[in-house]
Amino acid sequence: MDNKATFRVGSNIAFIKYWGVADPALNLPLNNSISMTLAAAHTTTTVRWDSEGRLNEDEFTIDDVRFTRERADRLVRHLNRLRRVAGVEIRAQVVSRNNFPMASGIASSASGFAALTVAGCAALGLQLNNTELSALARQGSGSASRSLFGGFVEWERGLDHRSSVARQLYPPDYWPLMDIVAVVSGAEKQVSSEGGHQIAATSPLLAGRLSSLDFALPDVRQALAERNLARLGPVLEQDALAMHAVMMTSTPSLLYWQPGTLEVLQAVRQWRTAGLPVYFTIDAGPNVHLICEARDAAAVQAKLQTLASVQSVIVSPPGPGPERLATHLF
Ligand code: DP6
Predict the structure, then answer these.
(1) Percent of the chain residues past pLDDT 70, beyond the cut
(2) Whole-angstrom Cα distance, residue 157 to residue 144?
(3) Ligand 1: does its nearest atom lie under 6 Å from the Cβ of 51?
(4) Ligand 1 within 6 A of 282 CB?
(5) Residue 167: burial class (beta carbons within 10 Å; 0-12, 13-18, 19+)
(6) Is the pTM here over 0.85, yes or no?
(7) What is the spatial distance between Cα 153 and Cα 172, in angstroms, rounded to a whole number?
């Protein structure tokens, strides 16, 4: 058995968000979600399984920081799932690197758990297809299920472990959209999405958002089929705002926005009125993702540079699914 493997996996930005969990044990979501996998924001992970039995516990080094046992708990629980599938007890050494700042409003849990899943399974010699890997990644982090595929992806809510998986709607080169992330704060977020999913049901607005998806999901699918940003943009903006309304009205209330968030939202609407086709979406953090077509990306970036609260910008076209690398991180 080749007990070491390295993969690079892109993060993703959701057009229709995953927010709220139906089955916390299996991590089944309340709703389908649709995303674009990102080429320019990715995690590279090397997993080596310790078949000689030298390690007493799993070891994780992420972005050059060795994780304490407490901090690694969620990752160890994920490796336990891989061990269960393979029927082994051995420990692993894991080194992982993000090419973007963690907690920047780009989902490092999506690319991180997807990369841990694919590299961990490959290093164990497990022959799983991307659909089976998507189900496994989902148990680590919901949004990770979508990073198993490149391009434009839908995660089917599903009824059980096997059916709650993502699939590719269109490959990366289908539509040159851009995700331009306006970083307005690099601070670590106060509340993890993991905790947020569990309190979504305390919001009186949750039912309203979920029923709006009866229209929003088909609309996004149709907009993608037509490559129609004028159709896609308003729906993705509304769903981001609906998710944040749910977050803000949960108990406890989750308020991820910072003053810079609002500065970018107001500016996007002005630019659009002035004729620039660009729309916003926001994950569980303060930073704003601007979605536009590739031909407008330079104009959007130039505009962003005029805003006082924008600290940095990350620009990404659609990206591929997981890629196996011949060079390991250790
Ligand atoms: C707001 O699946 O990333 O980005 O891994 O438990 O933190 P945890 O949750 P995750 O939730 C992502 C939520 C979101 C919306 C989305 O990406 O669909």
Answers:
(1) 95
(2) 14
(3) no
(4) no
(5) middle
(6) yes
(7) 10
Contact 151, 317 (CB under 8 A): no
110 lines ligand 1 (CB under 6 A): yes
* Cis peptide bond upstream of 171, omega within 30: no
Distance 36 CA to ligand 1 centre (A): 14
Number of CB atoms found within 10 A of residue 327's CB: 7
With H, G, I as helix, E, B as strand and everything else as coil, classify residue 140. helix
| Averaged pLDDT, 271-293 | 96
What is the C-alpha separation between 20 and 31, in angstroms, rounded?
8
Q: What is the CA radius of gyration of the chain?
A: 19
CA 312-267-285 angle, to 5 degrees, is 50
Look at ligand 1, atom 12, and give the residue with the nearest C-alpha: 143
Is the C-beta atom of 296 inside 6 A of ligand 1?
no
Q: Which domains does the chain have, with CATH numbers?
A: 4-173 (3.30.230.10), 177-316 (3.30.70.890)
Q: Is the CB of 239 under 6 A from ligand 1?
A: no
Contacts of 98 (CB under 8 A, 6+ apart): 41, 42, 43, 62, 63, 108, 111, 112
Which amino acid, residue 49? W
**Distance in Å, CA 317 to ligand 1 centroid:** 20
Enter the DSSP assignment of 69: T
CA distance 299 to 278: 10
Q: Residue 207: which residues within 8 A CB-CB, separation 6 or more?
A: none
Q: What percent of the chain has pLDDT over 90?
A: 93
Confidence band (pLDDT; 50, 70, 90) for 187? low
